Amino acid sequence: QQPRPAQPVRQKSQQRQQTQQRKTSQMSESRPKSPARLLHSGQLVSRHEPERVLNPRLISILGRQLERYREMVPMWVAQRQAIRCVVARKQRELQNKVREVEDLLEAKSRAERS
Prior knowledge:
Number of strands: 0
Low-confidence stretches: none
Radius of gyration: 34 Å
Structural class: mainly alpha
Distance between the termini: 110 Å
Helix content: over 70%
Number of helices: 4
Strand content: under 5%
Largest sheet: none
Shape: elongated
């Protein structure tokens, strides 16, 4: 037996890879990439960094967010109070309607018995 040349096998594997690359590039061109699928290199690296390296960065990010939203806190408290007031009013209205329905049902049953 004579050894077969490896060249045709390599060409076939290269052709398969090229067709696969074309298919994936066509699929990616047809649909837009969502932001959730795009990863930045910093995100990939930070996933593998030890926690002691990430803690200072996390603390600084949270500190910046706290500074950014500090003046919003009183508004959030006022909004929460307003929402509680609206919900309490609607619950009272609901209870009144429930009582009204119960009274009407009772009056109906009394009228049917008479």
